[in-house]
From TrEMBL:
Cilium- and flagellum-specific protein that plays a role in axonemal structure organization and motility. May play a role in outer and inner dynein arm assembly. The keyword Protein biosynthesis does not apply. Its main location: cytoplasm. This is Cilia- and flagella-associated protein 300. Keywords: Cell projection, Cytoplasm, Cytoskeleton. GO terms for cellular component: axoneme. InterPro entries: CFAP300 (IPR029416).
């Protein structure tokens, strides 16, 4: 019987994500209430990784001493290290199979009723769902299960990592200033996806393959309290692990719905 690898982790120096740190991206984050509420950290690990090891590596990650002593968590307006080791880790595999932005073509197709021919997002009467004001067809597609727009994307498509990014940006944070056109959301998703997801070209047939394994996680301490993310019942409090087996690196992506930040 093959044993799971004994993974250990080392925090890496802060990496410069050129697209995410771009001024336009940061300006959009501020507009959507996300600025200062997203943390991205990188770690390397010691043993080979295969996708079937994903549950094991996530468990070990949140219990590793070096991760515990360096993982940043939100405390008020600041990101600090709280030194919390996980007692349990809830792990949900997230499909990451999309290669390009054509995934959203049916979103921008005016015949589907969400956007007009120029990319403007169609408005509707206000409706409150999960403490979010739904005043346009795009947010209706994301939140309103009773709407016609909700079924534009299949249940499998809605699970995709790139769709999760759409939800994160469109719903935003506190005092989110929603867009009238869909283009800023899609442009920013493309930038984030390119920064975080590794795409490889196979040598034999030059086909593209995605080398990033994505997990949505909820890590809890010995008292059963969630800390990565905290208060996960709020849909915008969300934590991901992105595992790059080729380079033996793991990236955390954590958003905590919180206070508004300016430049």
């Amino acid at each position: 019987m093959e044993l799971d690898p004994d993974y250990t982790f080392v925090p890496l120096a802060p990496r410069h994500y050129m697209g995410i740190e771009n001024k336009n991206t940061q300006r959009n984050f501020m507009k959507w209430g996300l600025l200062g509420n997203i943390s991205i950290q990188d770690f390397c690990f010691n043993e080979p990784f295969q996708p079937y090891n994903k549950y094991h590596i996530a468990e070990q990650f949140f219990k590793d001493d070096k991760v515990v002593s360096s993982l940043l968590l939100k405390e008020g307006d600041a990101w600090i290290n709280k030194g919390i080791a996980a007692a349990t880790v809830e792990i949900t595999p997230v499909p990451c199979t999309v290669f390009n932005m054509s995934f959203f073509d049916k979103l921008t197709n005016s015949e589907n009723g969400i956007c007009g021919a120029t990319g403007n997002i169609r408005k509707q009467c206000d409706l409150e769902i999960d403490n979010f004001i739904v005043s346009d067809k795009l947010r209706s597609m994301i939140l309103d299960e009773d709407s016609c727009e909700y079924n534009l994307f299949s249940s499998e498509e809605r699970e995709e990592f790139i769709f999760r990014l759409l939800q994160l940006l469109v719903l935003g944070g506190v005092l989110c200033q929603y867009e009238d056109e869909v283009k800023p959301y899609l442009d920013t998703i493309k930038i984030i996806y390119k920064d975080l997801v590794r795409v490889h070209k196979k040598e034999l047939n030059y086909e593209l393959s995605i080398g990033t394994t994505v997990l949505q996680v909820v890590a809890r301490d010995a008292r059963g309290e969630a800390f990565f993310p905290s208060e996960p019942e709020q849909r915008q409090n969300i934590g991901f692990l992105l595992i790059d087996g080729t380079n033996r690196q793991i990236t955390t992506l954590l958003h905590q719905f919180g206070a508004f930040h300016s430049w």
